[in-house]
Specification:
Helices cover 54% and strands 0% of the residues. It has 458 residues and is mostly helical.
């Protein structure tokens, strides 16, 4: 097929793609009816206006309630000023803004090269990405946390690291999984940033203890250790190592610990190497992958943490691999084993996203990205100007000659940019099942969460 060469042809192509994406997202994935946002809003509203307790709230008709640390509820207090519809609108705007921040950090100034056409193609590709569309339709907070962490990555990569660690610390206070990024700072011997992140987490947790002492005591002594509050470990949306083991009928935590240990060892080795080379992009991406694997529960929407990995693949010249893996993550393929994930097919297909995450952890390129500050040409010309001895060399954008080639990069959820000119770094419910709507929690018509196939009784 010949590439679109005129603005009219490009506009027609974008309109056709937008229509296809709209039909796909409205039919195949089954939208999530803002279930998690209803959890947040109901818990905070009941706490503030009705004298309820944060962790006692349940969405009507389900057994699901608030599962995050108490600071998350404190941070969501402004939500109590709105009704549910207004809260949905605000959450949608916040998610769009967070996505814009994430993309700006991941692409640097490269997005300007492709104009409206390239940005439109990228938007269509992103709209198909299952973890992303799940995060938005659930009203989840993953994009906000990813933006906080990536902001710290940018500070570290550009040398403006006085306040680096604040974003990671706040993200870890909202959800436990991002705390692994503090471990990355320690591996990289960024002692100040690690101290700032730890202090931010401690301060936010202490603030929550002052505002909601009873809720804090309950969470840290009871709720935190009760995974049944979140959902069934063997539910197909749980694409962590623990989820794989649970679907194999092996729920023993000792076995899980044995499986997690080598993953952590690989992360330590590869992330430390990437940080030593100044490749903060890769180091943060590896940490996001590891967090998804070792967390007891990693719902499909948590996999937005894979986006920085696609940026690394594209920048290292592996666009076809990035595009193929990205395409799999757009298919909702794991839901084919929604009812039965047994057998070889269930082991391979029902855990497909886990295998992609594990593969990226093992084979994400390290040492193939520029480690010094680079400046992208702002011209749409494919030829980069020659570098002088007094200025950093301009990183060539191999294979990216114009808007048409951006589609491959956009399909990989990332774009090309300098390592130190921008930062790349790098947690609950599944996306759309390909099955018809039924009385199951992943269906928007059931008004229930998709954390488990059969919610426990109230």
């Amino acid at each position: 097929m010949m590439p679109a060469r005129t603005d009219r042809a490009r506009l027609l192509l974008v309109l056709v793609l937008a229509a296809v994406v709209s039909v796909f997202t409205a039919t195949v994935p089954l939208l999530r009816d803002w279930f998690d946002l209803r959890v947040y809003h109901g818990a905070v509203d009941g706490w503030i206006h009705h004298g309820g307790r944060i962790y006692d709230y349940r969405v009507p008709g389900t057994a699901y309630g608030f599962t995050y640390p108490p600071f998350a509820a404190v941070a969501m207090l402004p939500m109590s000023m709105f009704d549910l519809r207004a809260a949905i609108a605000v959450a949608l705007l916040l998610n769009i803004a967070a996505l814009a921040v994430v993309l700006r950090i991941l692409t640097g100034p490269a997005w300007r090269r492709y104009g409206w056409f390239g940005c439109a193609l990228g938007a269509c590709a992103l709209a198909l990405f299952e973890p992303l569309r799940d995060t938005i339709s659930f009203g989840q907070v993953n994009l906000l946390l990813l933006a906080l962490v990536l902001a710290d990555a940018r500070l570290l990569a550009t040398g403006r690291d006085r306040w680096a660690g604040v974003g990671i610390g706040l993200a870890a206070a909202v959800k436990l999984t991002p705390a692994l990024f503090i471990g990355l700072l320690l591996l990289a011997r960024r002692w100040r940033a690690a101290a700032v992140a730890s202090a931010a987490t401690a301060a936010a947790t202490a603030l929550a203890a002052c505002v909601a002492p009873e809720a804090s005591r309950f969470y840290w002594t009871e709720a935190m250790w009760d995974t049944t509050r979140v959902g069934r470990l063997d539910y197909v949306s749980n694409q962590s190592l623990q989820g794989v083991l649970a679907r194999l009928g092996e729920p023993d935590r000792a076995v899980w610990a044995v499986a997690v240990l080598p993953v952590l060892c690989v992360w330590v080795f590869r992330a430390r190497r990437a940080a030593a080379k100044g490749e903060w992009t890769t180091a943060f991406a590896l940490t996001g992958l590891t967090a998804c694997l070792v967390s007891p529960i990693t719902w499909v929407h948590h996999l937005v943490w894979l986006l920085p990995s696609f940026a690394v693949l594209v920048r290292a010249g592996h666009r076809r691999i990035a595009g193929a893996l990205y395409a799999v993550l757009c298919t909702s393929v794991v839901w084919l084993w929604f009812d039965d994930a047994s057998g070889v097919g269930g082991f391979l297909g029902g855990n497909a996203y886990t295998w992609i995450t594990l593969g990226l952890l093992l084979w994400l390129p390290v040492g193939q990205l520029p480690s010094t500050a680079t400046v992208l040409a702002r011209s749409t010309s494919a030829t980069a100007p020659a570098a002088s001895a007094a200025t950093p060399a301009i990183a060539p954008l191999r294979g990216q000659r114009g808007p048409a080639s951006l589609a491959g990069s956009a399909a990989a959820g990332s774009a090309v940019g300098p390592e130190r000119g921008f930062a790349l770094s790098a947690s609950s419910d599944p996306t759309g099942s390909t099955r018809p709507a039924a009385e199951k929690p992943q269906s928007s018509s059931s008004r229930a969460s998709s954390y488990t196939a059969k919610p426990p009784p109230d």
